[in-house]
Amino acid sequence: MGLYEDHPLSALDQKARNVYGERVVLKLLAQRIQFQRLPRYVSEYLIAKYVQPESWLDDLERIRNKLRDHLPEVDKREWLRHELLRRGQLVLIDSIEVRVDLKTGQRWATVKALGDDRVNVPETLLDANPGLLLGGMWGTAEIVYRPDVNGEAPNHLISFTPFQVHIHDCRPYLEGRKEFSTDEWIELMLNSCGYNPAAFPDRRTRLLLLCRLIPLVEPNVNLIELGPRQTGKTFLLRNLSPRVFTISGGRTSPANLFYNLARRTVGIIGTRKVIVFDEIASTTFAEQEATLSILKDYMESGNFSRGNLSFASDASIVMCGNIEVQYNRPDLRYRHLFEVLPQEMQDAALIDRLHGFLPGWEIPKLTPQAFATGVGFVTDYFGEMLVQLRQEDFRHRIRQLSFYADMTQRDRVAVERLANGLIKILYPDGRITDEELREVVQLACELRQRVHDQLYNLAPGEFHPRQIGFQSMPASSA
Question: What range defines the domain where residue 98 resides?
Fold first, then answer.
């Protein structure tokens, strides 16, 4: 039986396939077929590349067989090492990340399946797969054991077939946008994110869901989302791109986040595009004062220093946490909503550096019906495309509006970055009407307004009531 006989395509599904071809995939298939231990963006890449509608069952079986043969279980590390030692060669599927040691002139791959972070890598392999240096890539790796070449680091990565795309040309994505109305594009975006548009019929809810993409598409954005459990606060970013790193509670340190002085290696803020602090209430910081001081400076300037070294990064910061809700509103017992943060983070100076506050209590809990079944962009392509759009800049359009005079510089920067990100998501080709621009900027103002209102509740002696917006802005709906 053909794939589409069981799931007829809607007019929008068919249009997306006609315009974008192999860059889109039927999300129903990706939802039904979850390859264990692979991120969703890798699973969808394999489905889009190797599964044909007329032979989908056989194609899926071939993928499963390959994964069964080459994707090792976590507890088989010593067996893999034994096989490599015995045979001198090994083919495996893993997430490979490469770092460059300028002091020694070496390029080292980290192969998690072997527990080895000193695997030799040839320069030519990196030229063909630059993503290995940009947060790592999933793929099929061939490792050889050559102690005669390097006795201290005997393992060598000699070939790599990626399971991810590296985009060199954004034009097909941008040019395709004009074929869709704004409502159609929003539905395509939701499908691409893994959400079923029919489960979120309200336009405001749809836009709030898409706001979760802003940190990926806009550099140096600091966003917080607080809401009830099971609303998917980190589901999207966690599954969308290898450029995203999630810290799920636990303990973190300046060495992990910024720079490890002992190993002379840059931390995750210097190697990823988005850092997500999940379960922020349970996050603790080693060297607490130093870590938060560096983090505050970074959130303000995009720069950080460790020892006598200084670095710049464009990584965005996302903080997610749970909050008690009654009747779809935050519980009235909170004096301010940042009470759910660790005590050391209830600092007005740090919170003022948050550009926007997403009202997670407005987003429904995710049910099985909330997940996409229609056609959307292949997750890997979509995530990489959003990262490439960081280079676009529409702030000149935003600055055409007359903002209220008493807004601070931080308010203006926050609104510009949030609105710029939303334009890239909704109108990536820059074709946006004045009415659409006002809608986008109004939502950006609302997200920043929520930060300021909570700052006033937190520190009323320092912060005073202030309206964030522009002339002729409609009254906010929330």
Answer: 74-162
